[in-house]
TrEMBL record:
Its main location: secreted. It is found in: Secreted. InterPro entries: Growth_fac_rcpt_cys_sf, Ig-like_dom, Ig-like_dom_sf, Ig-like_fold, Ig_sub, Ig_sub2, IGFBP-like, IGFBP_rP_mac25. It comes from the Eukaryota. The lineage of its organism: Eukaryota, Metazoa, Chordata, Craniata, Vertebrata. Keywords: Disulfide bond, Immunoglobulin domain, Secreted, Signal. It comes from Perca fluviatilis. The keyword Transmembrane does not apply. Residues 1-28 form the signal peptide. GO terms for cellular component: extracellular space. This is Insulin-like growth factor-binding protein 7. GO terms for biological process: regulation of cell growth; regulation of signal transduction. Residues 159-260 form the Ig-like domain.
Length: 278
């Protein structure tokens, strides 16, 4: 009987004590006392950014750690990440050979398990599913409809000209170019036109001009496109306004630049100086 008692005393116990009208849990886990829900602190009125979870003692509801917040720890002070997040230790800690007990003590940071952008049902793009879930919880707390994932990647958007073509001055026979950058989802298609005596008359480029070429490439950012009009050699006929036009399934946008011919390099400096003064 003595050996039996010794064995029982070494086993962690979780005892349910029957009290008239109430079950009370008594935990043998270090730092956790009897669970009394009436003693639990309430959740914030504004809600929890990453939702709520049970505390490490399994008694009270507490705010889960959100993306970028500290997590981990030991016993009653341990903090858990919200749904879709995982507790990641620093690179320095990963390089160290830690025992099981040391690993429990180490703090980490909550990181989203998904690392791709998502489009929400509110037509907004979120950096990942965790950011969308936080926004959805905030919306529900305000009595609004929850936000769901519509698709992976950015939400469809009409093109925007982020870098319009400028105004170029040079002498005849030189090499000049105009550039234009646009962004949109899906990635826009860029075209160039020369304005002929007003916006109502335009010539689609490159046409049959031997001295003019059109180049386009994706980037530098995702869903961005860059295009150029290259002219070499520059002639009197090439002077004028040039329109960069971007279009996709969601819409279109355009911007106008210009090429001006001057008689000498001195005229270029003089023209630019005058414009700066204005």
């Amino acid at each position: 009987m003595k050996s039996l008692s010794l064995c029982v005393s070494l086993v962690p116990v979780l005892v349910l004590v029957l009290v008239p009208g109430l079950w009370v849990r008594v935990s043998a886990a270090p730092g956790c006392g009897p669970c009394d829900p009436d003693q639990c602190a309430g959740l914030p009125a504004a809600g929890c950014a990453a939702g709520s979870v049970r505390d490490s003692c399994g008694c009270c509801s507490v705010c889960a750690a959100a993306e970028g917040e500290p997590c981990g720890g030991r016993r009653a002070a341990a903090r858990r990440c919200g749904a879709g997040l995982e507790c990641v230790r620093t690179d320095e800690d990963k390089k160290m050979k830690l025992g099981d007990e040391d690993k429990k003590k180490k703090l980490g940071v909550c990181v989203c398990k998904s690392n791709y952008e998502v489009c929400g049902s509110d037509a907004l793009t979120y950096s990942n599913g965790c950011a969308l879930r936080s926004a959805s919880l905030a919306a529900e707390n305000q009595g609004k409809e929850p936000i769901s994932i519509q698709n992976k990647g950015r939400c469809p958007t009409a093109p925007v000209i982020v870098s319009p073509p400028g105004e170029v001055y040079n002498v005849s026979g030189s090499q000049v170019y105009l550039s234009c950058e646009a962004v949109g989802v899906p990635t826009p298609v860029l075209t160039w036109k020369k304005v002929l005596g007003g916006k109502k008359r335009e010539e689609l480029l490159p046409g049959d001009k031997d001295n003019l070429a059109i180049q386009t490439r994706g980037g530098p950012e995702k869903h961005e496109v860059t295009g150029w009009v290259l002219i070499s050699p520059l002639t009197e006929e090439d002077e004028g306004s040039y329109e960069c036009h971007a279009a996709n399934a969601k819409g279109e946008a355009s911007a106008v630049g210009a090429i001006r011919i001057v008689h000498s390099i001195h005229d270029i400096v003089k023209t630019v100086t005058t414009e700066d003064e204005l």
